[in-house]
Amino acid sequence: MLEQAFNGLVGGAFYALLALGLAVIFGMLGVVNFAHGAFYMLGAFGAYMLLTDWGVSFWVALGVVPVGLGLIGVVVERLLIRRLAGLDPLYNFLLTFGLALILQDLMKREYGAQSQPYPRPSALSGTVDLGLFSYPAYQVFVLGVAIVTCLAVWYVLSRTRAGMVVRAATERPELTRALGIDVGRWVTPVFGVGIALAGLAGVLAAPMRAVNPLMGSDLIIAVFAVVVIGGLGSIFGSVAAGFAVGLFTALANLYVPALSQTLVFILMVAVLLWRPAGLFGREEGIA
Question: Are 263 and 249 in contact (CB under 8 A)?
Answer without folding.
Answer: yes
